[in-house]
Amino acid sequence: MIVRERFGTDDSGKEAELFTITNTNGTQLKVTTLGATIVSFVFRDKEGTMRDVVLGYDEAASYLEQKGYYFGATVGRNANRISGARVTIGGVEYALEANSGANNLHSGSNGVSHRVWDTERVDEKAGSVAMKLLSKDLEQGFPGNMTIKVTFTLTGDDAVRIDYEAVSDKDTIANFTNHSYFNLAGHDSGYIGEQKLKIYANAFTPVAPTGSVPTGEICPVEGTPLDFREFKEIGREINADYDQLVYTKGYDHNFVLDGGGRFGLMAEAICEATGIHLYAYTDRPGVQLYAGNFIETHKGKGGALYGERHGFCLEAQCFPDAVNIPLFETPLLKAGEAYSSATMYRLSLD
Predict the structure, then answer these.
(1) For 177-205, what is each residue's pLDDT tens digit?
(2) pTM listed for this prediction
(3) Catalytic site residues?
(4) Percentages helix, strand, coil for the chain, rounded to the nearest 5?
């Protein structure tokens, strides 16, 4: 079942829609055309209580006021950071917005996260909603008129699958992700440090002391607090006296996935209190673990207070600053070629 309703407007007055998708298990997904955003993901815990496991807001206005957190949003054209807020494509240098010190983060203030997308298709039988957006040439500083489509599907086995598609009339950058903050005890339950995480990665990309931009190295996680190859509480080593954690005030790092771009598991997370188990899948080469280190105390859905480390993100992506580091897989999309990618988050009690 899919219910469609109004959700408020963006700064220009364009109306945003909210879609509530419910499957036969009673699991519920809410998505809005404002930023192609996941607003809620509700699942029954081991005691039979329905838990909303993603942070978010009750109306469009709050998303616009708190846009720097990107709660649940589709991020692009380029997710994560670009050093110096500049990119060279085809020998031409393009200046981007420097919205994170001297760097560009998540494509700047005019990224697709803050736009109202058009509803392209609602498919009750498939449990899916497709949204479409035209990102104009140089609108974010990137070249090319790019048509982007994101499809959200709530499956019968309690997963939200996110399919990305894009095409541009000029060579450009395509590196999209979803920025949901998960809290498997419930969005309103506070600190996520006791929840356990496993990441299918033997290596990570270290960042420089300032700016959180990769150094260009690929280093093993073994022997570091970034080793999540086996389940470990997120909070166990988050405050360790380790330079990489000091630089970013906790976890905010890209992991080099063992799957190498083949669709498969990138991470799992478990909350023992609720019994909820998250399985996360992607076909991207990397995943950014962000532990909500910089969430300031403010009100979210239902008046819940959100704060530092109240949610964790698993952002499937090309590596940060890949546009400037030849060692990393490029996010370059050639004119006329089709970009496609998929990410899936599945909830379970097993």
Answers:
(1) 999 999 999 999 999 999 999 999 999 99
(2) 0.97
(3) 179, 315
(4) 5, 45, 50
